[in-house]
Each structure stands twice: as C-alpha cells, then as structure tokens.
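Milestone M4 deliverable, item 7.
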Amino acid sequence: MKFKLHIIWFLIWDRIHYALIHSELGIWFLIGMNKKRFLSNLRYSNFYSKYASFNELPLGNKSVLMDHFEEINIAGLKKDEAFIVGLAAEQGKRSNSMIGDITVGLSSGTSGNRGIFLVSNIERAKWVASILIRVIGVKLRKRRVAFFLRANNELYQSVKSSLISFTYFNIF
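Output delivered:
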C-alpha cells in the first residue's frame, strides 16, 4: 500500500512540476531546488562527498561509475554481488533481482562494458508515475503493455496493476 501511495504522490508532484516548468519563476525555483537537493544527497556517497560545490563535480561516465561503484552507491552494495544478482536474474536462474529492498539491473553492454544500476522503492514509484503519465496515460480503462527487453526485473514489473496488464518478452 505504501508503494501505491508513493506512486500517487509522484503523479501529483509531476502535475505540479509541469505547471511550474511552464512559468518563468517556476523554472528558476525548480533549478535551484533540484540542484540543492542533488548536492545535499551527495553527502551520503563516499565518492561525491569530498566535492564542495556543483562546479567541482567530475564528469561521470559508465567507466567512472563502475570503477567507483562501491564508493558511489549509498546502499552499501558490493559491485560483485550486485553483478551476480543482476546476471542470475537476467539468465532466469533467480526469481528476482532484489538485494534487500534495492532492485539491481544491468545495462546491455553495447558500449563494450556492462553497467549496473540500482533502484530504491521510492525511485521505482517515481518511475511508475513517469511511465503512467508520459507513456501509457492515466486512464480508468484496462491497458496492455508489452516490454521487449534483455531482462525483466522488479522495476519494470512495478507498472503492473489491476488497470495495466504487463507482459515481458525476452529478446533472446
């Protein structure tokens, strides 16, 4: 139930956010608020906490993120464990891709190296709200969604509800 309340909250916030973006004062408010929130959350990361200002932050890319995975992620997850869980779920050897309440996923590796992404329950709720608003639309009629992906995980399954039928198809 708490997860669904988070989704409803983010649906409401998205509408407010949209209204603010379409006003000049709102744009400056959101830029300042998001920058402040972003910087305040960096203090939890051993990697980013050493930077005092936004302008000092290094440019990030997949190799930087993977090289410093354990310093950057604030969930305290080990890179090897996250990769094993993500790969096992992708190969169907595991029924879920969760470590505690964190969803683990892997990038496709088309750039030559695979990346790991971690998603909390709050971030899953934000993602569901975004998908509902921007892709599917919030309507009170039954919808069917098909996902064609390398691997399924709890992030994608979060969209499923009594109004949305979700079917995953493995591209392999």
